[in-house]
Amino acid sequence: MRYITPRKAAKGLGAAGPGASTAHHWGMTVSSSALLILTPAFILVIASAIGLPHDAVAGYFSRPYPAIVTALFLIVGMHHYINGTRILIDDYLDHAERKVAIILSHLFGWAVIAAVAYALVRMALSPVAAVVVVS
């Protein structure tokens, strides 16, 4: 018969586990720091596009700077969202509900990333974008 002490059974579990929570914390810290820099740049990009006609917006986002800033902001933001909802879900839901909620939050986050990437690529490759030059 094998006897396991409570300490041995709990070792490596919880907040002091081997690296999982520390890596998650650093991931959240890095993504929030990146968002601190990307948010003002994204606001300026969007503010410059407000009021432009459809063709001019496609031309504007076909340029590298607005497209890269928009893509980085939304990718990093959705990655931060996915990790943040994971913490929220782990704190408030149990068992089957937790698994379903985590899957749904991941699907939503990756769907937004895919939609943004598709929209930016479509604007960059549109024939209208090559004609319109926004100054």
From TrEMBL:
GO CC aspect terms: membrane
Any GO MF annotation of the entry: metal ion binding
Cofactor dependency: heme
SUPFAM superfamilies, per database record: Fumarate reductase respiratory complex transmembrane subunits
Pfam families reported in the protein's UniProt record: Sdh_cyt
Parts of the chain that traverse the membrane: 34-52, 64-82, 102-121
Alphabetical list of Gene3D superfamilies matching this protein: Fumarate reductase/succinate dehydrogenase, transmembrane subunit
Keyword NADP: no
Keywords from the named record: Heme, Iron, Membrane, Metal-binding, Transmembrane, Transmembrane helix
Keyword Iron-sulfur applies: no
Tree of life domain: Bacteria
Compartments it resides in: Membrane
General function of this protein: Membrane-anchoring subunit of succinate dehydrogenase (SDH).
Protein name: Succinate dehydrogenase / fumarate reductase membrane anchor subunit
Species: Paracoccus alkenifer
Source organism phylogeny: Bacteria, Pseudomonadati, Pseudomonadota, Alphaproteobacteria, Rhodobacterales
